[in-house]
Every structure is written in structure tokens, then in C-alpha cells.
Amino acid sequence: MHEVSIALGMVDELMKIAQKNNAKKIINVKLKIGKMSGIVTDSLKFAFDAIKLEYPLLSTSEIFIEEVPLVYECNDCNNLFKTNDIYFPSCPECKSYNLKLKSGEEQYIENVEVEV
Ligand SMILES: [Zn+2]
To answer: What is the pLDDT of residues 77-104, one digit of tens each?
Structure first.
């Protein structure tokens, strides 16, 4: 499962953050995950909840995931629109396929709350 390796990478990152802040505990973690990233957020949460038990610093931390929708800008009519269509999106105004991806590829830790 792809999400397990992502969760492991995230744990690595969180341990570094904890160390840098001399944290006793990580209380919660906010993630931003774009629809285009291909990550199944439920699976990621599940993987994280399993892995965190092996880390005392993380064992009680909660994870919050904000899913970022796909937003495209049409190069032909400048229309900005959201879509769930990952593969063949087209502009709802002019039906063009000439689009620019504006957001939806996000995959990062937005915020970490620690106890020091
Ligand atoms: Zn258009």
C-alpha cells in the first residue's frame, strides 16, 4: 500500500519537527492533500494510526487531513473551476481541454501542534 510509505515518511518528518522543538508530544498534525496527489486519505489516516503506536511521541497524536479539490484555469476563456475529473477534465464554459492546473497536487504537513 502506497499510503504506508507516505505515512512512514511523514513520521520521519514529524520526529524531526519534535526534536527541533524539544517536544514531549505531538498533539495534532494537519495535512493538506490534493486530489491529484493520488493519495487515499482514509488509507493514509489508517496507516498513520497504526504506525504512531510505535512512537511514544506520536502515540496520542491526531491527524487531520484537508483534501484540496482540483482547480483548473481554462487557457481559452480564463474560467476558473473545480472538478472531480482527474483524467479528462474540460472547461464547463467552453468545453476546452486546454487547461492549467491551479491546485490539487498538494501533499504536505501544514501545521503541527506540539507539547513542550
Ligand atoms: Zn473555457
So the answer is: 999 999 988 889 999 999 999 999 999 9
If you measure from the C-alpha of residue 96 to the centroid of ligand 1, how many angstroms do you get, rounded to a whole number? 5
Expressed in angstroms and rounded, the spacing between residue 82 Cα and the centre of ligand 1 is 12
pLDDT tens, position by position, 34-53: 999 989 999 999 999 999 99
Distance 68 CA to ligand 1 centre (A): 22
Exposed (0-12), middle (13-18) or buried (19+): which is 79, by Cβ within 10 Å?
middle
